[in-house]
Amino acid sequence: MFRVFSSAYLDRQRLHLHKADVARIEALEQQLILDAKGKMLGLPFLREKRLNGKRLLFLVYEKEQAILLVMVTDKKHQQEDIDAIKDQLEELYNYVRYRLGLR
Q1: What is the pTM of this model?
Q2: CATH code for the domain of 48
Q3: Ramachandran category for residue 102: left, alpha or beta (phi over 0 → left; psi -120 to 50 → alpha)
Q4: Nearest one of 72, 70, 29, 30 to 50, comparing CA atoms
Q5: Angle 89-100/78-87 helices, nearest 10 degrees?
Q6: Structural domain boundaries enclosing 92
Q7: In angstroms, rounded to a whole number, what is the distance separating the alpha carbons of residues 29 and 43?
Q8: CA 71 to chain CA mean position, Å
Q9: Mind listing the pLDDT tens digit for each residue in 20-31?
Q10: Residues 34-64: pLDDT tens digits?
Q11: What count of other Cβ atoms lies within 10 Å of the Cβ of residue 28?
């Protein structure tokens, strides 16, 4: 089983998403606890799940048994959002370690 965390950015995005999208994210969180499947995006630990025409981008940390839900994006902005995540991999990893109490 995986522990699932949400980034601060995604928490802010949720405030502006449609209620159906927020409910879908919550359902995906429950799925990911049991199985970290998602379409790989260039790196084995960077994945996506489709979300009513949008995509939920997340990072899977197998060793730590943790998943970080990073952001919701659309097809138009997906590549720039993926690049932004790649630029922040170390900070995102440190955030997960902090949430797990591994610092």
Answers
A1: 0.94
A2: 3.30.2310.20
A3: alpha
A4: 72
A5: 70
A6: 3-100
A7: 21
A8: 6
A9: 999 999 999 999
A10: 999 999 998 999 999 998 889 999 999 999 9
A11: 18
